[in-house]
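FAQ: What does a multi-protein file look like?

Like this. Sequence, then tokens, then the next protein.
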Amino acid sequence: MSLPEKVARFRAAAPAEQEVALLNAIISVGSVHLESELGSLKSALPELLVDVLEGRVNYANLNVDEALEVARKVLRPEDPFLLKLEDKVKELRQVEFIEKILDKLGGIGVSPDSFGKQRLGVITGFMLVRDENVHDAISELVNAGIIVRRARVSPEHHIVIMIYSVNKSQEVDAVKKKYSLGIQLPQWFFEPLETAKRRAEEEKTRIKKEIIETLVEIAGVLRDAFEFERATRIEIISNTLKAIENAEKNIQELERLFTELMAFNIVHGICRKRITVFEEIGLKKPVCELLRNILNNEKVTRQQFRRVLAHIFSQEELDEIENEYTRLLSLQSLYKALGTLKLEELAEKSVYIVASGGQRLEEVERPEYIVSYGYKTINKFADEDMRIYIFSVPEETSSALVNYLKDRLRAQVIVVTRDSQAFNNTQEQLARSLETVKNSLLTTIVSRSIFKTGTKPERILSILNNEELKKAYSYISQLKSGVPQRGLPEGDIYSYLKSLTGLADETSEEISHVREEIEFVKEVPCENVTERLRNIEKSLVDVSSKLVELLSYKSVVETMFRAQPLLSEIRVFRSRRITVIEGYVPVKYVPLLEQTLKSKVPRLLYFKYFEIPRTATAPTYVERKGLKKYLYTLTSMRGTPAYWELDPTLIFTGLFIVMYGMMFGDIGHGLVLSLFGAFMWKTKYRLLGITREGAATLGVLSLLAGLASMIFGYIYGTMFFLVPLGKPIIAPIHDVYGIIAVALWFGVAQLILAFILNMVNLWIYGDRLGALFSGMGGAGLAFYGSGVVIAYRLATSGFNLAILSSSELAPFISVLVIALLSVVGYGMFEALHRGEKEKFMHAISEVIEMIIAFPANSLSYIRLAAFAMAHEAFGILAENMAGFTGPIASYLVANFLVLGIEGLAVGIQAMRLTYYEFSTKFFKGTGIKFEPVATPISSIEKTKA
């Protein structure tokens, strides 16, 4: 238990041109909590916007025309805020126009819900007409025998009401088509008149509120010319940060490309010389055999292919790579078939067509196709996966047959003429294609296998002995483990930030280029691969180094993004500007802050600080080192301690683990829980999607709770519900009253501790009277202590109420009454002498809580005994089940149930007792969180350009 670190409030000022130096100094210190800006320069804003910001403008007194005029003066015509405001004003004018229509309709006794409805063969309709057309429209309607009424709704518009029989509908529609404005009216317009008017008023109110919200947004970005400059700076920092974060997402892709390049080097350069290289890099035996079979052109069935690769590829990837393998088999079959051709046997004006495909290719044997295309089958080969046909075809039908084979039967086709030179070229081209597809297939399998098996790149690089890939790997290793951070160079910092944004875009483009080059090189003939491969490797090294450089600035840019909006500017003699920054820093860091400001800011105009007394409001700085950085979560979940409050982290933790152990006492279960906690703490495994920090916190709490469970397991003499380990000190299930007594006395001790802590907190805060006479202070402690003694004597006397009148308890009953009266008296004192009238009612509520809640809180601790007994009851359950399911099964089921269900339930109960019964007596948790603007200076490597 300790108080939060004492903090000091500081203020520093420098000329505006040295703002970056001032900010860099603050960033270097790190443990600084900045206050929000000192205030806006309202004089630069139009008066209306100032009134909007200060809440003096509401929907009832808003002058919409003035608002629109002001917005048009300060915003560009294409500004989104202005366009939004104009849309809202236009919407408001539309509603006001509808409201005028409703008023006119009310004046002539017409309700809008009657429009368009037929009653006794008569229809009431309306239309809006321009002023210049109204006489013509009325004349045509009257001539058609329509009853007409009109009313002016604006200087330019009239509403014309038409009453007509059903058989006049066509004449009315013709006039409406000719003269009606066709304004779209909302559905609520056609409701009863009063309802429609009310809806119109509601719509006007809604739109005006939205206009005010828009004006607030406008005012927020238009403080003055300095605010525009600041917004630009923040935008530059924001864009740089986004660019760095987007570039960071490329690390996994970069690693994938690196792995693919390693695989391609293995496939292209080494595997043909060292057939054992696949085993050397750590691939599994079935995969190695598959790769060698493909490399040596040995047949592998599709079933074998899928079975070997099923654990490496997803279903979608497996289908894709199987198609690639099918293509390889087809090319191999075609190449084999070409070797059987004899050009001298080919008839004049005929060609050979070699087709490779699946089972569908057998359709070519149907007589009607043979007759239609006039081909003759020279040879054919078949296995379970592939069909090869060689046809002799007349030249005039060869094109049609080729199209049929490709389009209908999805076959790969080669056409061979009598030209021997062309035939040799075809064979060479097919051989190159075969080699290219094989390399691509092998590369894909090898690279994916490396990823899946987690083979260390160092092992592969030692085989390849490729310097460029080694350089690339060193950069990628830095990217994965964390790039050392550094500060920004001196000079025009915002220009430098823009260059970083450009560098981020450049790296993304280069990664895309490397990806495209790798895909392209797979199609390049083997004799041309080496040079291209070296160029790709150099590009990979280059882009990796750029990404390392880019990410080395991430911390400082993140810090600038958080700190920049908190800087303030003031104007001196119109043209001179001064940047002012203020905030809080732990007292122990004040000398470091002062020294850093003086050394980094050439013209530090002002620096002052003063220590904040405990009675004042300030951010709460709690230093979290070692295990406390994980355990503090118990406190932060309840709230942030106020600056004057004791930090309850250690006592929260101690009480939690003791209560957990008491309810879950078992050496074996405690050991399992401890091992689970150690695993979570060390690995930070994101169980059920929790954060890594949350996983570490869960791990530490589980480890400590498990140790407490083992201690209580020794006291209870249990281990996995097996034979008791010697005579237990206390057996919950057999000594019910004993374990309940322990639980209750533990609760009493815990609540007394809570009262004492509250008295300490109030004393530190300066409320000495409250510490002594409040219901949660000294008076509450006296009341509770006396109540415990009285309750104990009642219980030990067999609840004989006559004992209450004994002289033995008279002093305690007197203390009980005096404590209640002192709480009420203190409340009256605060109400009368301090003018805080609500304090008296607060005192009354405290008295009620003392009488009702204190006993209830004490009895809540019986749950400690109840869960301890329930835990042991599971052992009896396992014992009884042994006759039905066997001892091993019954004990396994019982232990799994306890670890899975009771382990969680006990944690919830321990948390509840800690948070509700205990912490509510003394812990407010209303403090201000200390939010450092940056990481400490020791974690940033500072460099100069």
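And here is the next protein:
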Amino acid sequence: MARLNPTTKSKAPPLFRPPATPATNSNPIPSSSPAFATPVHPIRPFNPTAAPIPKASILPILLPPATLRPLAFRTFTKKHSLTLTSSALQVLATFIGKHCGTGWREEGLAERVLEEVAKSWKNRSGGVIVEGEGTELKEILKALEGNMSGGRIVIGRELSRQNSLVLGSSQYGEVNHTRLGLRPGNIPREDSQSSLGMSTLEVNDEEDEDGLMDPRRWLKVIDAFEQPRLVYNVAKKHFDRDTSKPSLFPPASHKTLLFQNRYNVIHQRLLRNESFQTPAFQGGKSSLQRSTSAITTQQQSYKLTPIANLLGRNRSSHMLLGLLSISPTGTLAINDLTGSIALDLTHAAAIPEDSAWFAPGMMVLVDGTYEEDETGTSSRLGGNGGVGGTISGKFVGFFIGHPPPERRHVTLGTAGEGDTTAGGGFGWVDFLGVGSSRALGNKMQRLEQKLLRPPPPDTDTDDPPPPSRGRVVILGDVHLDIPQTLQALKKILSLYSSEPEGCTPMTFILLGSFVSHAVLARGGSGGSIEYKEYFDSLAAVLSEYPTILSTATFIFIPGPNDAWVSAFSSGSTVPLPRKPVPEMFTSRIKRAFANANTEMEKENGNKGDGEAIWTSNPARVSLFGMSCELVVFRDDVSGRLRRTAVTLKSSQTSNPENEDEDIDMSPPPSSIPSSTPPPEIDPDIHTARRLTRTLLDQGHLSPFPLNIAPQHWDFSNALSIYPLPTAIVMCDVDSPAFCLTYEGCHVMNPASVVAKGRRGVARWIEYDVWGRAGKVREVGF
């Protein structure tokens, strides 16, 4: 933090300090208080706009990069341990030559500019290599340009939230503005330099929005390895950006931090829930409420007990929040940040019953009784008992449940449709690197309404309205080595190519695996040559529909059988997240898009802007900033849940209110609504609800132990779904295709594009961005 006064001040208390020397008063009118040099008349209000500071002029020059190289090497490499590429050096030389002019060397102007650029690059969590082709360096120079005059960095200008400049003189100028009674132009915050503000979206209120009528202009695909890595700070109750360099082989301490961050995020989410807040008047105990419960009853709030606090409290009832795990002895245990204890779920019942899976690796709530080991014969491997280790005895659980979720608008501190509230939340946190909800929410909402809102129905004609442009077509398990898949893909594309011009879907998402067997593992799908031929056949199919290719964005998500991970995994579980399919196999598809764009230019005079994006698994698709967030994930989660879930007691328990009823008669409805699914419910729908509730309550895409579903420790933040996204595309071939909404989050599973068990049927999901809902579509081929 910049010091406001360079002179040394006395550290004595104000009461014992010597009186300050009176300031010299140049006003001839005598002061009413000579000790403080206070004039007898009031001070005239200072108007900073009355006398504008003239902007100094400079003489731009053409500065060769080779001339700037020694100074840039000394500043970036030796002082800040950064490496400049030739393109970045060219950008810096052009900027300094334009804004510093002839005094770049003699007056030291270039050195100050390079120093601020290097600091900003490191504060934005940039890599070791400074690239000139990306947007990061251009954004830093754009922010710096607005604070320069005559080649020097000046004060009194408001710094944009998107830069990371830390200027002591600017802070000093803001303090002077505050003392004069003026509103400061920018209040520096410790966390605003890292995770807040207007990140990579180039949004300008004065921008001509009429020329940006295509909603794809506001679409961005966020790779899992490029997503900002945020860590919850318990002391600040806020998210901090992890500035350390990520690695695929991090130290062992990062494994501990992975689960610690998950626990802290869920713990703070619970403390914001109404059921865990102490009411003003105590009442009877009630069931767990979700964050959106509108029923207000007198209740006794739940209280979480750390595991270490169970010592010496034999046969007392508690509620624990912890990680469900398997102890070294092979029994169930629950862990939190204070310790671990054996868990007995023999008599435990799920709340709600039969509505979710409970497997090791999940954060669970357990309500029960602590039973201390009075004989001292409990088995503990390693002897690490007591606080911070294994607590003696066991915890007998009577009820077990998932942590209640939190709606997206509650997390971000917005009210429903994007209107900001006076409460807290994390609205200023930039979770995706596309700008925060508070900074860009209103702007993005207006753009979305302008571009995607359907026109009012025409009452004069009975014709149906044209299809919306804001649609996302989702196809799962696209096996290119099976001929039926290409036939189904042709049928689907032909349906959309016959739609009116300008109404075709904006995005197509294709999820792997793109081969039915593990490629490059000497499986049935062949090697690398055959793998490339499969994509060449896909390029041939796509080339038949140039209109779609030139007006849409195709996003490809790899699966477990794709390169390169299948070379050593043979289709088994591999660490998440996964890298995209290598470019060497997809060159023919990119050429098909380039040809379609050129063909459109020949026909209409305007070159098409269709593109193919190969991204990671999982990935995120951002539409209009944080207004709409889609999480795309390919994994067979339901099968893994069935194999690893803990078996609880049967949900068919007797109801005390109905014990006197005849066993052959249906009992009357209870006054307490039961969450048990009715017998007539479709098993496929019940499976979809269990899968959706399990993942969204956990706030994680892969809530399993690392030995069952490994993760890259430094990139595990990409698997978190907090805050809840607008929609989740979860391709799971072990579950049926479904579309449902839970806690405001729409979850979709396209399953396989070729319907299993049905001959000649293609199945996919069509998601409406404006309506925030998807539907399963089928067609014969």
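Q: Is there any per-entry metadata?
A: Some entries carry free-text notes. For the entry above: Residues 65-179 form one domain.
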